[in-house]
């Protein structure tokens, strides 16, 4: 019971913050239309010049589609099973199991926060509008269908489930000589596995309730892609990815490598969700394909932005992924950096990160990553110009613009 | 498992099949199938339907069936011949594993994922779930005057085995068992994270196959199975229930973990056959009762079977801290088991003591009795279907379940 209460308090507090932020709403609306959508040479640069703030872009967007999307999660957060999980989670406090970190990041993780994915789905739904749909099916105030709201929730559940499953620990013999620690880890794995399965099972049930089999197949294929992503390329003992050894001809090595990984692990889910929501709205195949491209490019731009951030902060101790875009671009430029990275073949923790950081920052990787992000942002923006101008479309372009804003 | 059929029985089964094929082309022999008054009632339904038939030939056939049912044959539920269902469905079942493998392999290009995902298909599995699903499908089709098996029904049989396998794979991550189906279990060969993802992958591919059946109700029915499985696992985690609630808790858990899959896939194949709600319910309840009996016997065998026959060590459940039916029954006679159940047999000597008390009590007999009750109910339900070799086999399945030794 007390857990449910505390969850509520957290959500209420979050709501209070967004209300505060919403007071700036009027001011913001005055600024927004000045971004010109009409012209085809629509560029991210124009939007960035306004210095849009990430949090503001997101909270404004949440207001456009009704209640904050984080409320979507309320229902499953308050279910008995999750209350049960929360009880078990408490037993893990003090242990080193990464499930706790995953749980924390689910509540808030800056630019990577979960709510934003459902939010994007709702915004594109509103931006595209819907055809020939029963009045009863529509959430008039928000301008989206109930089924689209459910799909947004499914998207969040699938993504969360995947992150939770990714957060298991590989327990090798001898890794935890202390029996109590081994117990903690085994138990943590159990809870992580079941919580992920719970979310996956519920997302399947929720999808089934939408009674659209093409949508079920589409979203299931996104789950499949996420699972497949975890098998791509070289892995250390904890399944952390390592960049693959480039072929003799390194042309396009970086983009191919990076895109393959990230389309499967991020682009497919957001792309297919955006496609699915347009399917629900009764749009034709062509528009649905636009939806897929929008979601895919947005997710890739997002990923490029995340990959970039450790190299932008000027803090050499920020942890980063050895498969992130700046690093793979550097490998294409000069594969000798692999000498250092390959020390992580057993565990990526053995890599000297400051050394890699220094090499990457002095090479072309950062500039190329910025370019990569711009390209994908641009592609996403191009798709947006297909839709009529609306507050939802403005919000989406603000979010894309905010990504480029450091 | 397919050990019941002696060569004599097989020959007989072959004869029955021959006989069954003849039904389609020639008028029915005088041999009677129907026995109870209940079935006589359902055959008047047949008569009515028959009057609407355009096909003269079919009509004559049905009249013959109705007439033949007027005379009763032998009393009681015992069939006059025994058919080994595995023999009967040999053609349907022989490629099930191969087809599942092909489906899984077609969904990824990653060799490692292919290997893990297909690992358990084609081992020493009994294929109980596909067998029951196909048997019910054929029995129901026959009941609805249709011969053969729909492709979609066979798909459901494959899907049920895939869902079962995904749950086995995830169980292995949790239980840390070393052997399953006569080979090293997946978690002994690959890391927990990869195994978890492979489970998610199988589930995703199964959901895609469900969607391709293009039936809203079938999708809803089968997605229920996935949520049931997870909730069953969650129930297995907690033992906070009081003594009174414990048995209900155990039965609900058993339904969710084992019977739901059999019940809902039986319901799904019935729905695909065009069965009405009442007939689907018969299929569902048959699957549910078989599933409950199966798990009860499984829990019983955990106390009596030697380790090599089971493919897993004896008293494994106790060692995992689980109180199954034999223990719960024994606890009525020996209340000192209560505290052991509450502490999940964690203290030294608990497992041995509990094992001994179960054998001293009537727990094993009572468990078998309960399983038998479910089998009798399953047979009663099968009797409401039209007589056919498949319907007869449904009786045999209940015998297989209750009499199995591994």
Order of SSEs of chain A = HHHHHHHHEEHHHEEHHHHHHH
The count of β-strands of chain B is: 2
Summarize model confidence as the mean pLDDT of chain B: 81
Whole-Å distance between the termini of chain B? 8 Å
Structural class estimated from helices and strands of chain B: mainly alpha
How many strands, what sense, and barrel or not for the largest sheet of chain B? 2 strands, antiparallel
Using the coordinates above, name the CATH class of chain A. Mainly Alpha
Question: Which parts of chain A are unreliable, with pLDDT below 50 for 5 consecutive residues or more?
Answer: 1-52
Total discrete domains of chain B: 2
Sheet with the most strands: spatial strand order of chain B: 1-2
In total, the number of strands of chain A is: 4
Helix content of chain B: over 70%
User: Which geometry of chain A do the CA atoms define?
Assistant: globular
How many helices of chain B? The count is 21
Global Rg of chain B: 22 Å
Proportion of beta-strand residues of chain A: under 5%
| Overall SS class of chain A | mainly alpha
Query: How is the largest sheet of chain A built, in terms of strand order?
Result: 1-2
State the CATH superfamily name of the largest domain in chain B. Answer: Farnesyl Diphosphate Synthase
Summarize this entry quickly.
Chain A contains 18 helices and 4 strands. Chain A is mainly alpha-helical. Chain B has helices at residues 7-25, 37-52, 56-70, 85-88, 90-93, 96-105, 111-118, 128-143, 151-175, 186-189, 192-212, 216-237, 243-272, 277-304, 307-310, 316-319, 325-333, 337-342, 350-360, 363-383, 389-403, and strands spanning 179-180, 183-184.
């Amino acid at each position: 019971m007390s857990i449910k209460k505390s969850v509520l308090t957290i959500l209420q507090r979050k709501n209070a913050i967004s209300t505060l932020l919403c007071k700036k709403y009027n001011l913001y609306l005055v600024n927004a239309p000045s971004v010109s959508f009409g012209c085809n040479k629509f560029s991210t640069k124009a939007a960035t010049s306004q210095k849009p703030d990430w949090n503001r872009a997101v909270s404004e967007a949440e207001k456009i589609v009704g209640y904050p999307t984080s409320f979507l999660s309320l229902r499953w957060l308050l279910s008995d099973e999750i209350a049960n999980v929360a009880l078990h989670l408490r037993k893990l406090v003090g242990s080193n199991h990464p499930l706790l970190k995953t749980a924390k990041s689910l509540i808030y993780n800056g630019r990577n926060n979960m709510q934003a994915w459902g939010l994007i789905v709702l915004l594109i739904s509103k931006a595209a509008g819907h055809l020939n749909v029963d009045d009863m099916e529509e959430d008039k105030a928000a301008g989206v269908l109930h089924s689209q709201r459910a799909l947004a929730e499914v998207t969040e559940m699938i993504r969360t489930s995947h992150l939770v499953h990714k957060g298991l620990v590989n327990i090798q013999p001898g890794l935890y000589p202390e029996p109590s620690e081994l117990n903690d880890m085994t138990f943590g794995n159990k809870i992580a596995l079941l919580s992920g399965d719970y979310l996956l099972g519920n997302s399947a049930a929720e999808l089934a309730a939408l009674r659209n089999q093409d949508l079920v197949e589409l979203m299931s294929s996104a789950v499949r892609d996420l699972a497949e992503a975890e098998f791509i390329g070289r892995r250390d003992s904890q399944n952390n990815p390592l960049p693959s050894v480039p072929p003799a001809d390194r042309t396009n090595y970086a983009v191919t490598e990076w895109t393959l990984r990230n389309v499967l692990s991020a682009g497919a889910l957001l792309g297919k969700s955006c496609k699915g929501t347009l399917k629900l709205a009764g749009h034709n195949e062509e528009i649905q394909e636009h939806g897929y491209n929008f979601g895919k490019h947005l997710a890739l731009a997002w990923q490029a932005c995340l990959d970039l951030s450790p190299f932008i902060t000027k803090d050499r101790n920020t942890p980063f992924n050895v498969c992130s875009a700046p690093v793979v671009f550097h490998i294409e430029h000069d594969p000798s950096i692999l000498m250092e990275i390959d020390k992580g073949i057993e565990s990526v923790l053995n890599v000297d990160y400051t050394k890699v950081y220094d090499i990457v920052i002095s090479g072309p990787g950062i500039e190329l990553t910025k370019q990569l992000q711009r390209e994908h942002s641009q592609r996403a923006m191009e798709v947006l110009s297909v839709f009529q101008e609306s507050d939802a479309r403005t919000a989406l372009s603000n979010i894309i613009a905010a990504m480029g804003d450091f | 498992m397919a050990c019941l059929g002696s060569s004599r029985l097989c020959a007989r089964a072959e004869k029955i099949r021959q006989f069954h094929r003849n039904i389609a082309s020639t008028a029915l022999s005088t041999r009677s199938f129907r026995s109870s008054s209940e079935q006589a009632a359902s055959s008047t339904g047949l008569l009515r339907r028959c009057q609407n038939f355009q096909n003269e030939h079919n009509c004559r056939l049905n009249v013959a069936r109705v007439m033949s049912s007027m005379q009763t044959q032998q009393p009681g539920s015992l069939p006059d011949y025994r058919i080994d269902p595995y023999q009967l469905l040999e053609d349907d079942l022989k490629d099930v594993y191969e087809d599942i493998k092909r489906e899984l392999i077609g969904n990824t290009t990653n060799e490692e994922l292919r290997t893990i995902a297909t690992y358990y298909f084609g081992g020493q599995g009994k294929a109980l779930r596909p067998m029951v699903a196909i048997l019910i499908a054929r029995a129901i089709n026959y009941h609805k005057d249709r011969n053969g098996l729909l492709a979609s029904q066979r798909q459901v049989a494959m899907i049920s085995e895939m869902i079962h396998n995904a749950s086995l794979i995830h169980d292995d991550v949790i239980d840390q068992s070393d052997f399953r189906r006569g080979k090293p279990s997946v978690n002994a060969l690959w890391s927990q994270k990869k195994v978890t993802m492979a489970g998610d992958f199988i589930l995703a591919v199964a959901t895609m196959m469900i969607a391709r059946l293009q039936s809203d109700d079938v999708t809803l029915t089968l997605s229920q199975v996935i949520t049931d499985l997870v909730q069953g696992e969650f129930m297995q985690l907690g033992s906070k229930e009081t003594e009174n609630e414990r048995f209900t808790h155990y039965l609900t858990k058993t339904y969710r973990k084992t019977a739901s899959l059999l019940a809902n896939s039986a319901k799904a194949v019935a729905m695909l056959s065009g069965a009405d709600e009442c007939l689907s319910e018969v299929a569902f309840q048959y699957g549910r009762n078989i599933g409950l009996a199966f798990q009860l016997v499984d829990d019983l065998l955990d106390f009596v079977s030697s380790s090599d026959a089971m493919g897993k060590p004896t008293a494994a459940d106790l060692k995992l801290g689980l109180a199954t039916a034999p223990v719960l029954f024994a606890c009525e006679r020996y209340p000192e088991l209560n505290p052991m159940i509450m502490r999940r047999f964690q203290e030294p000597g608990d497992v041995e003591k509990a094992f001994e008390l179960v054998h001293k009590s009537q727990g094993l007999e009572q468990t078998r009795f309960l399983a038998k009750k479910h089998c009798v109910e399953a047979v009663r339900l099968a009797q409401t279907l039209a007589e056919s070799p498949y319907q007869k086999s449904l009786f045999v399945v209940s015998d297989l379940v209750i009499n199995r030794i591994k």
